[in-house]
C-alpha cells in the first residue's frame, strides 16, 4: 500500500485580497501625508517661531525646532509602520497566520496613532484655553500656522486621515471573518489511496500475473522451477523418459 502525504491546494478568498488592497491604500495615504508634511513643515516652523517671538519665551527658535522634530519624526514613524503593514499584506495573501496576527497588532497601534492625529488635527493642534508659561495662546499659534500654509492643507490632511483610518479598520475586520479563518487555518495532510494495479514496493510484478508478497511465481519465464525436495517423488516433468526406443514412435528397432 502506498501512503503519500499531500497538501490540498487552497484558494484565497476575495475578502483576504480586498484586505490586502486596503492595507496598500493605507500605505499610499501615509506616503501622501508625509509628502504634505515635508512640503509645509518649514512654513509651520516659521509660524511657530514668529508666534513665540513676541512672548516672554527666551528662545523661540528652540520651541520651533522641537515642533519641527516632532512633526518629522512622527511622519516617518507612521510611514515605516505603514510599510510594515504593506509587507504583511503580501504574506497574508499566502495564507500565513503569523502575518495575520502581526497585522492585527501593528494595525491596532496604527489605529490609535491615526485616530489620535485625526482628532488633534480636527480640533487644532495648538488650541488651548489661554497663555501657558508666558507663551502665546493656542488660538494665536493656530491662526499663524493657518495663515502660513496653503488653505488646502488642512482639509486634505483630514481627508487622508479619515480614509486611512477607515481602510485600516476594514482590513482588520476582513481578516477576522470566518472565510478568512478557514484560509489561514493550517490544512490537514490528506491520505492518497494507491492506484489500482500498482505493484507493491520491493516486489516485482510479472506481466499477466500479479505477484504476491512472499510467494514468487514458478514456471513462468524468468522464474526457475522449484527443485524436488528430499523424500518427495519427482514430478512427471522431472522424471527421465523410460520408454524403450523401440516403442517410441518414429524410431527403428535395432537389428539382431
Automatic annotation (TrEMBL):
Transmembrane stretches in the record are 21-41, 66-91, 103-123, 156-177
Q: Where is this region: Disordered?
A: 195-256
State the superkingdom.
Bacteria
Q: Which keywords, in A-to-Z order, does the entry hold?
A: Membrane, Transmembrane, Transmembrane helix
Q: What's the protein name?
A: Uncharacterized protein
Whose protein is this, by species?
Micromonospora orduensis
Amino acid at each position: 500500500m502506498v501512503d503519500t502525504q499531500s497538501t490540498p491546494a487552497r484558494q484565497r478568498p476575495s475578502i483576504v485580497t480586498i484586505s490586502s488592497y486596503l492595507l496598500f491604500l493605507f500605505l499610499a495615504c501615509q506616503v501622501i501625508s508625509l509628502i504634505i508634511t515635508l512640503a509645509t513643515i518649514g512654513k509651520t516652523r516659521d509660524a511657530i517661531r514668529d508666534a513665540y517671538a513676541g512672548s516672554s519665551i527666551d528662545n523661540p527658535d528652540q520651541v520651533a525646532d522641537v515642533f519641527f522634530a516632532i512633526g518629522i519624526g512622527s511622519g516617518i514613524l507612521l510611514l515605516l509602520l505603514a510599510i510594515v503593514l504593506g509587507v504583511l499584506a503580501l504574506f497574508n495573501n499566502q495564507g500565513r497566520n503569523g502575518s495575520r496576527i502581526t497585522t492585527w497588532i501593528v494595525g491596532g497601534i496604527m489605529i490609535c496613532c491615526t485616530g489620535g492625529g485625526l482628532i488633534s488635527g480636527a480640533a487644532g493642534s495648538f488650541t488651548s484655553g489661554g497663555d501657558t508659561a508666558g507663551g502665546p495662546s493656542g488660538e494665536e499659534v493656530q491662526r499663524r500656522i493657518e495663515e502660513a500654509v496653503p488653505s488646502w492643507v488642512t482639509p486634505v490632511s483630514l481627508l487622508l486621515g479619515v480614509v486611512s483610518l477607515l481602510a485600516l479598520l476594514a482590513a482588520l475586520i476582513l481578516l477576522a471573518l470566518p472565510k478568512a479563518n478557514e484560509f489561514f487555518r493550517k490544512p490537514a495532510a490528506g491520505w492518497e489511496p494507491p492506484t489500482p494495479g500498482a505493484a507493491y514496493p520491493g516486489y516485482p510484478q510479472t506481466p499477466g500475473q500479479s505477484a504476491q508478497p512472499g510467494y514468487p511465481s514458478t514456471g513462468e519465464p524468468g522464474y526457475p522451477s522449484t527443485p524436488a525436495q528430499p523424500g518427495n517423488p519427482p514430478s512427471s516433468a522431472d522424471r527421465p523418459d523410460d520408454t524403450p526406443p523401440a516403442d517410441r514412435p518414429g524410431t527403428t528397432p535395432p537389428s539382431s
